Amino acid sequence: MDQRPNVINTEIGLNRFLTKMYGWMAAAVAFSGVIAYLGATIWRPAVMTFLSQGRMSIWVIFIALFLFMIFGQKAALQNPTVSFLMLFAFSAFFGITLSSVFMLYSTATIAGAFFSAASVFIVMSVMGVTTKRDLSRMGNHLIAALIAMVVVSVINLFFLHSSAVTFFFSIIGIVIFAGLSMYDTATMKRLYLNYGDQVSETGLAIQGAFSLYLDFINLFQYFLTIFGWNRD
Fold first, then answer.
1. End-to-end Cα separation, the chain, in angstroms
2. Who has the most CB within 10 Å: 4, 38, 178, 220?
3. CA 73 to CA 50: how far, in whole Å?
């Protein structure tokens, strides 16, 4: 029996899914960029007040949005509208917090960090799509490394205050999120192939876009730290 039509249909469906996922991810990044620019220009006084006087509120909003995205994913898969609203609420919030980037760094530094992050992300994400390997073990190691890095970074932030440690962990962060870009892409591909007919394709695509958005934004921030260090 000829299985070629099924293969073609699977490839078409996967390509459609990946196009949606990357499209929503790119839209979220662009939206964050627009909000960040507006926050650094037109909305600058209000943003400066919010960032300087509302740090606790920032953390509360961030944690609430993050937890909702994580624990609300099951419901979001059945309701793409929920996924859409939360993705762009999260990207808008991140855009506000990134407003300081446009205030502190030159256009050349921001552009260099952005294109470096984009290059690494694209290469690793393509590898995630094309790889045939099971990346589960790699994902577990990356998440463990990320948790360890966050713990040490918090210690450095409140106790050590070492710029050298910050620079070193920026390099480590790039390695971790480069790996996560590959792992998350491969995971979303596997989820689509295994469960794409059981959940909303758009909801699943937006869930993947959220994961890849976080990978890219973190890559950008770590590259920005390195480029800013070199500038200083």
1. 66
2. 220
3. 29
